[in-house]
Write a structure and sequence with these properties.
The chain is α/β, with parallel strands linked by helices. The chain has 26 helices and 22 strands. Bound molecules: adenosine-5'-diphosphate and magnesium ion. Magnesium ion binds at residues 315-316, 410, 574. It is an enzyme of class 5 (isomerase).
């Protein structure tokens, strides 16, 4: 956790005092406005927001240890009190404030790497400090680095209860936050949003005492139940929060249904012809999922469906058939992909299927020339284009659709909530005059499975279809984990594979800190391999290349003219070259599990047995070891995702970007699942029977934040 900057309230008061003579009122007003700005940054606008800004944790400042005793307490914070005996700004080697304090038992150094001038003054020799932190034994003896502290007078009373520590922002001290919250508590309307009867049936504590307890725990409280948030007061807060989330999502769902969608009922000429000319027949899983999608499109309210299927399970065909239904019904369909390479592949593949059947397909990405863009946009706007494929450009450019009926988002987890919302609303803009604000149907595709419980918690009304079967004739990928030292052997193996006519991906290490360095590594690897494999064609593709150049390389690889393709993670998503059956991933320990799985999914697409070699550089940390082992043991995306969840926890797994998870501050989806279920049930009942309670509860808990969830 970041240490709070110690901008003391005292300094602010002093500064204000100086200017009193001239313009006390305006100065105070500016100061208050500045504080308000900072509070707003923390999301605290209304008094209720402030009251619901609950402590992150609690500190026990009820006791003071002697300095010598504190030196023997390891791994947790202690509080000491002493008189400043020395204070200097030192350079060792970084500028820092070094303060020595002592009591009867010994002395201790406090070290601050970030400090204000005002702190140096505070720490004048002879002043008395209460400091709290972990004691370490450094070069200069016992020390605390960035302790929290306050100046006190001798014999100043100790608090009798635990001290709450609030999530704070830049320039907001704990003292100020505490005061803000106490003031707000005096102003709010405390009425409980849940009736006495509901509370007792759910065994919930009342709102007011719960909130007051959390801000101001009684002296005798069991510290551990506060810390692990199992105290009844926390349970009430978590329940309220989850209830607000469920209510908000369900309400958004109802609103969406009321808006309605274009009905796309026709499985006509195009749909039939399309299926007929496919070079394969659908797997049973594809067929089942397709029926689900087809049924949705016939409804007059918008589909909101997530199509999950492991890499290579054949989601694209299902999406294309859905698009055919939209076109058969006289509407446009749009497919948005997260990268140019992927959009391009979709375009070629789907246009290759659709154009011979007379469908007008448009293509729009950021890299098009201005003239081409204008031309594409004109076709989209006039309705000539029936199927539109592209990247983010579809939402960034001022694209107007004529009659958008279906939005398909590939690799949906790559997009933010907001981006998907914009695309869906495109349907609104254009059809506003004609149709009364209808919403296009939405089909999202992802190979990164969201566990069902999470999906239901985050998207109350998301339907999920799963393709749980791979097309026939695939042989499972064999994965080996190999020490970097054996790189030469690996190159030998690549050589042998290429001579057998197999194609190879060589994935360069991820270097998160520096794109330039990543590029450099890719270029170096390319050169090394060119030198080591003189009889082979070795290509290079990376994120910084011009789209046209990238395309040229990908084309050559698809045609089989390139044997070994050195690539950065640009190939992570969706690329489909069935003849590629060997993949080498360098520094596999730097990649996350889902990324490794996505990468590996680029091979194993044809009928040849595929191999994935994960090169690592030791020594490996615990987590990296675990990840590589999981990769070796499983090729099942769902299994891998579940393990990933275990390692990382749900918040990070979903990524704040797509989950609206900023919503949940107190509840933990894993440990509080039982509360989620209850909140969901109650939300259902309240929406049906008790709109007043719904309104009051949402106003209290979400205020202005509700928009987040209307996606
Ligand atoms: P993903 O689900 O990863 O997006 P794709 O849609 O790219 O998978 O499909 C992977 C490959 O499998 C493509 O080459 C596709 O044409 C092929 N494919 C899809 N469905 C079938 C099927 N039922 N039988 C045989 N091959 C199929
Ligand atoms: Mg795909």
């Amino acid at each position: 956790m970041k240490k709070k900057p110690v901008a003391s309230a005292k300094t602010a008061t002093q500064t204000a005092a100086k200017s009193t003579a001239k313009a006390a009122a305006p100065a105070a007003a500016t100061r208050a406005a500045k504080i308000d700005d900072k509070l707003i940054k923390l999301g605290l606008r209304s008094d209720m927001d402030k009251v619901l800004h609950l402590p992150l944790r609690y500190e026990d400042e009820t006791e003071i240890r002697s300095i010598s005793e504190a030196g023997f307490i390891f791994g947790r914070s202690v509080q000491v009190e002493g008189v400043v005996t020395a204070c200097e700004v030192a350079f060792r080697p970084r500028r820092q404030l070094v303060v020595t304090i002592s009591d009867d038992s010994g002395q201790l150094v406090m070290r601050f790497l970030n400090f204000y001038g005002s702190q140096v003054k505070q720490m004048a020799e002879g002043n008395r400090v209460r400091a709290r932190g972990e004691v370490r034994h450094g070069f200069f003896g016992a020390e605390m680095v960035h302790p929290s502290y306050k100046m006190v007078t001798e014999g100043a009373p100790l608090p009798s209860a635990l001290t709450p520590v609030y999530p704070a922002g830049e320039g907001l001290s704990q003292t100020l936050l505490r005061k803000t919250i106490i003031d707000a508590m005096a102003r709010i309307e405390w009425r409980d949003t849940l009736s006495e009867q509901l509370r007792s049936s759910l065994d919930l504590m009342s709102f007011e005492p719960a909130v007051r307890l959390l801000h101001n725990p009684p002296p005798d409280i069991d510290e551990s139940v506060l810390a692990d948030r199992s105290h009844a007061a926390w349970v009430r807060m978590k329940f309220d929060e989850l209830l607000a989330q469920q209510l908000s999502m369900k309400r958004a769902q109802i609103a969406r249904r009321e808006k309605g969608a274009a009905v796309l009922p026709t499985i006509g000429k195009l749909s039939k012809a399309f299926l007929k000319q496919l070079p394969f027949s659908l797997t049973a899983a594809q067929q089942r999922v397709l029926e689900e999608v087809r049924a949705d499109l016939k409804q007059s309210f918008p589909m909101q469906r997530l199509l999950q299927g492991d890499v290579g399970s054949g989601k694209t065909v299902v999406a294309a058939i859905a698009a055919a239904q939209a076109i058969d019904s006289g509407f446009q369909a749009v497919l948005m992909a997260p990268t140019e390479i992927l959009a391009d592949q979709h375009f070629r593949k789907i246009a290759g299927w659709m154009e011979p059947l007379g469908v007008n397909v448009a293509w729009l990405t950021g890299s098009l020339k201005k003239k081409e863009k204008l031309e594409a946009k004109a076709r989209i706007e006039s309705g000539v284009a029936q199927l539109i494929i592209g990247t983010h450009a579809l939402i960034q450019e001022d694209v107007q659709f004529s009659k958008l009926g279906l939005v398909i988002v590939d690799e949906q987890h790559r997009f933010g909530v907001g981006q998907r919302l914009v695309l869906r609303n495109k349907g609104l803009d254009a059809s506003a005059a004609a149709a009364q604000q209808k919403i296009p149907h939405q089909l999202m595709m992802s190979a990164t499975p969201i566990p069902r419980t999470l999906a239901m918690t985050y998207y109350a009304d998301l339907e999920v279809s799963v393709i749980d079967e791979l097309p026939p004739g695939r042989t499972p990928i064999v994965t080996r984990v190999i020490d970097q030292n054996r790189r030469d052997e690996v190159i030998e193996r690549v050589h042998a594979a290429a001579l057998e006519g197999r194609q190879v991906y060589w994935v360069c290490p991820l270097i998160e800190e520096s794109e330039a360095l990543q590029l450099q590594t890719a270029t170096d690897t390319h050169q090394t391999l060119v030198a080591a494999l003189p009889d082979l064609q070795v290509g290079l593709v990376h994120g910084r290349m011009k789209p046209a150049d990238k395309q040229q390389v990908m084309d050559a690889f698809t045609r089989g003219d390139i044997h070994v393709l050195v690539a950065t993670t640009v190939i992570e998503v969706g690329v489909d070259v069935p003849n590629a059956s060997l993949m080498v991933i360098e520094h596999a320990e730097r990649f996350g599990l889902s990324q490794l799985h996505q990468l590996r999914g680029r091979v194993g697409r044809g009928s040849t047995a595929s191999v994935c070699l994960l090169l690592y550089q030791g020594p490996l940390g615990m987590v990296a070891k675990q990840r590589l082992r999981i990769m070796r043991e499983s090729t099942d995306g769902f299994e891998i995702a579940r393990k990933d969840l275990e390692i990382r926890g749900p918040g990070e797994f979903l990524g704040a970007r797509q989950s609206g998870q900023a919503m949940l501050r107190f509840a933990d989806l894993e440990t509080d699942q039982w509360l989620v279920d209850r909140a969901r049930d109650l939300a259902q009942t309240l929406l049906r029977d008790d709109p007043a309670t719904v309104g009051a509860h949402l106003a209290r808990w979400l205020g202005a934040r509700e928009d987040y969830l209307k996606v």
